[in-house]
Amino acid sequence: MSTDYSGGQDPANTVMVSTMNDLPGFRIERVLGECFGLTVRARNIGSSFGSAMKSIKGGELKGQTKMLVDSRMEAMTRLTEEATRRGGNAVLAMRFETSPGELGTEICAYGTACVATPDNPA
């Protein structure tokens, strides 16, 4: 997983992911349906205590931020793997949903798996 606080898709991934409803320069040949990638993460008690202490004086909770970045990346990887399993090479209208749960934080990446081809193949 990443060692920084940024995000985004792994450049080695061959599935195009867009938050838009289309892919400029590409034609959608087939829609394969909604797909998602899901992960649930929990902080250990030491990290949770440290975050609680940090929240008293204010400031970024870097451990929490890193956990959320890593979780989103894992959910994205699972999303693109599911699109590939269905025969797709793109995911459109991708979104994240994050919800706190009793045991941890649930992160879901979801979108529409499809097959896209370039408008003007070389």
Please supply descriptive tags for the structure shown above.
single chain; 122 residues; alpha+beta; Translation Initiation Factor IF3; four-stranded mixed beta sheet; 2 helices; 4 strands; 30% helix
Would you kindly provide a written description of the structure presented here, covering whatever features stand out?
With 122 residues, the chain is of the alpha+beta class. The chain has a single domain, classed as Translation Initiation Factor IF3 (2-Layer Sandwich), CATH 3.30.110.70. It is 30% helix and 35% strand. It has 2 helices and 4 strands. It has helices at 45-57, 62-85, and strands at 16-17, 26-41, 90-100, 105-118. The protein has a 4-stranded mixed beta sheet with strand order 1-3-4-2. A hairpin with a 4-residue loop joins β3 and β4 (105-118). The protein starts with 15 loop residues before the first strand and ends with a strand. Belongs to the UPF0145 family.
Termini gap: 35 Å
Average pLDDT level: 84
CATH topology: Translation Initiation Factor IF3
CA radius of gyration is 17 Å
Element pattern in H and E: EEHHEE
Largest sheet: 4 strands, mixed
Pfam families: YbjQ_1
Family: Belongs to the UPF0145 family.
InterPro entries: UPF0145_dom_sf (IPR035439), UPF0145_YbjQ-like (IPR002765)
